[in-house]
Amino acid sequence: MNAVIQLLITHALITHITHYDIQKMKSYWIKSEGGKTALELRELPVPQPKAGEIVVRMRAASLNRGELLASIGLHSLDEARPAGGDGAGEVHALGEGVAGFKSGDRVMARARGFFSEYVVVRADQAFPMPERLSWEQAGAIPTAFITAYEMLVPHGRLKSGEWLLVAGASSGVGVACVQIGKVLGAHTIGTSGSKDKLERLKAAGLEVAIQARGRGFAEAALNATGGKGVNLAIDLVGGTAFPDCLRVLANQGRLAIVGYVDGVLKSEIDLEPVHGKRLQIFGISNTHLTAAERAEATRGFVRDVMPAVADGRITPLVDKVFAFAQLPAAKDYVDSNAQLGKVVVRIA
pTM score > 0.70 for this model? Predict the structure, then answer.
């Protein structure tokens, strides 16, 4: 009898281990085709964490326009790769040496491959999710808000009482800039081609709304500042908005370039105001950041901005939520420029 019982136990253990080893998950990958991006659904083994990593069971992930711009050389994909750059979920497994997290913790993070049921994340890229947020709200935060934080704080040096202009304020990063700018005590100006979006942005805290698609907002922005100009301008539109962004800068003003949804990568630059006003022009992209630089940005964001998220001063603006299986439809929606804030997929 004992031998029979032992045999049954051994069989059960082997069956369990075999099932664990071949456990599969669904994962979307992205690739470039004819100047556009296409998504494909794959079935892959559930990943295992290495030292310094955690595996997150995904609950929600957001769409980031930069990843979808295959027509832009910086974002083109010669080979398919895991899709999705950020999201929220529960800690599923921890690698060697990971401290500060335990299984079941609710976290937000940035990494590659978030449009999957499970994803591997460097532990220094993950941070706790406030209880007040839904999965969808938390999934909308990491990439958009850390990008906005880098533009406004360490690079943009925005101070209380200064003027902030956001060209393309209805995008996910644009809304994040407005919300963080408000918390910092800055005056905010935002542009959008949609009157309806601008009205909704004003309800979210935007002070001065200018209806303009691309160019044509400089005079109104200058009037709003009493002719002094803005201290920091964020160009989320591209080459069509660049001349006006440059024109509205005050003495020692800063201009951040972070997007080109208009597809215009080149623009004339008037060197005289750059020279005469001691202007600074810089770009923000996550493409070439080292792991250490990403970790530093994450730490700064958690220190300087997450308290405002936790206490309710900032709530991410989620425009629309799609089911995981509807990710291609969510991508089409983002491509249509209909969104205000972030588009999120729910991973049940």
Answer: yes
